[in-house]
């Protein structure tokens, strides 16, 4: 999608603001032991840049999220590498992948179907790293209703309003697939886009009937006595649709392959650390985005962030069945590469 000059100017301004705020993310001394433990949690050493190698500042959203870029920076995993995040302010979830595809930002974390659709439309991007994995105790997204609601089964949702964070991603396609499997006419549901950090309140005030919420913000709904969790995506598809990978702009990859490798390695190390230190990850996230720790929920991550093909094929099949992309236009190999992941090919 074309981006006009005013958009570029705004992003440059936000980038300056984001870099000015980066210094505020330094962790207090009490994190030192966790940082040392983090280094041991990763299975491969960091890549140290050679003398004279340029450090590449990659453009990235500064969103209130549980995110490996932020965690890797907090843990010091970009130190000694050829890459540094340059935050460009908050970017609405539906805009992240289109902006990666046009190069307005260099990396973005969003669901596979958005990347597939972007590639089908001719945008220049590639999945370079796996992301979250759904566990029963750490799902990718949760489904909430009000306790005083009569909604308890999929069929009860006909005629109701579902709030979710964007069209074209997991919340839409995983949910519609599940509802159809249970005989629900999804065309009789009103689908309303509501950001994750607003969904709990929107549901509690009765403006939607069901909210689909991702971590860390799903924790607030879990602790809200007026709300009830019905399902998680683990209940719907055992997590097949729950991988939220990291994608990069094609030109950035081609011009900065070593920096791309350093970004992928840094977030893979951070992912391994999160899996080994879930409470520490929650604390860092709570501090960073100003949330009450008890409400911060975390993700689990694919080991070493090595990409596998089934989650990608899952969404290619869905998009073809939904008529969103022509059959055969996008192949699995068009969507991803493990070329920049130093853990690929190593024992898990």
Automatic annotation (TrEMBL):
Chief location category: periplasm
Gene3D superfamilies named in the record: Periplasmic binding protein-like II
Pfam (any one): NMT1
PROSITE patterns recorded: TAT
Stored SUPFAM superfamilies: Periplasmic binding protein-like II
Ranges of residues in domain SsuA/THI5-like: 63-281
Keywords of this entry: Signal
Signal peptide: 1-22
Top-rank taxon, per record: Bacteria
Any one cellular-component term (Gene Ontology): periplasmic space
Cell compartment(s), UniProt: Periplasm
Family, per entry: Belongs to the bacterial solute-binding protein SsuA/TauA family.
Protein name: ABC-type nitrate/sulfonate/bicarbonate transport system, substrate-binding protein
Organism: Azotobacter beijerinckii
